[in-house]
Write a structure and sequence with these properties.
alpha+beta; 5-stranded mixed sheet; 9 helices; rod-shaped
Length: 289
């Protein structure tokens, strides 16, 4: 059982000053069973008291829950407890706790996949894809190079499914970590604490090798385990690096590597670089004649 669920359940029990009352009918079976599952999450053993009324019975679980059951529905009510008869004593709710935990695992399992899909289609993931596509549109792709990431831009759909299956296998029996993992993707909090991600440098990205007008370039974009986006461009010709540094104030240069001054390259960077390389190509062509 999740520490967080247990803590919140205990806090609710502490804060409750009045007993929760349920009037049982067969149509309320699910509602009543869920109320008893909540009790099982708080503790397993409960002192119960059964009070005979003129038209039915009241079953009291300590000071937490009172269930009023008409006589004609008593047998149906007992099916919640696998048809065992109830007597004034202590009642163990382990079977209901197991069912509650199974419910939580099922719900979290169903929640994990759409959470991953939403995360990988929203910022910063959609932003990095915009920039990769801007690069591809200008300079084409000679090939994608390997990165140490669980999900790559060029094989995103396949990799995302593999990641989902890996996370499911790792955390299916660990409700607490599954909850924290879902919250991490939803709230964009660091993933480095989760064992599955410790083997990777980044969570997502692309490393693109392009050759334009005879110039080899590497465009790399990544998202790290804290959901921070980074981008760089390597250009093998120093003259081109010098020209784009002079022409574009939104970048900084270290050697032959170009960095944006923020997380991402300004969208004007791509046409600026394209025009510089294209102009050099035209001049080279003219010089051949």
């Amino acid at each position: 059982m999740s520490f967080y669920n247990l803590a919140s359940s205990l806090e609710r029990l502490k804060e409750d000053t009045t007993m929760n009352n349920i009037s049982y009918l067969p149509t309320h079976f699910g509602q009543t069973r869920n109320a008893l599952k909540d009790l099982a999450k708080i503790k397993l053993d409960w002192d119960i008291e059964i009070l005979e009324q003129s038209v039915g019975k009241e079953v009291r679980f300590g000071n937490a829950l009172n269930v009023s059951v008409p006589n004609e529905h008593w047998e149906n009510f007992l099916t919640i407890f696998d048809n065992c008869d109830l007597v004034d004593s202590r009642l163990n709710l382990r079977s209901l706790l197991n069912e509650a935990l199974d419910d939580e695992v099922r719900d979290l399992t169903l929640e994990l996949k759409p959470t991953l899909i939403r995360a990988f289609t929203n910022p910063p993931f959609d932003e990095i894809e915009q920039d990769i596509n801007r690069w591809k549109g200008r300079f084409k792709v000679e090939r994608f190079l390997d990165q140490n990431v669980p999900v790559s831009f060029d094989t995103k759909t396949r990799d995302l499914m593999k990641l989902y299956e890996s996370l499911l296998n790792s955390y299916r029996d660990d409700i607490g970590n599954m909850e924290m993992l879902i919250e991490a993707f939803r709230d964009k909090t660091p993933l480095s604490a989760f064992e599955t991600f410790k083997q990777y440098d980044f969570i997502y990205g692309a490393r693109v090798r392009s050759r334009f007008e005879g110039i080899t370039m590497l465009f790399e974009a990544t998202i790290d385990m804290t959901f921070v986006l980074t981008e760089t461009v390597y250009i093998e010709e120093q003259d081109i690096v010098d020209d784009i540094e002079e022409a574009d104030t939104s970048i900084k240069v270290v050697g032959q590597i170009i960095y944006p001054r923020g997380e991402r390259f300004n969208r004007n960077f791509y046409p600026n670089l394209y025009n510089i390389i294209a102009d050099i190509g035209e001049k080279d062509a003219e010089n051949e004649y």
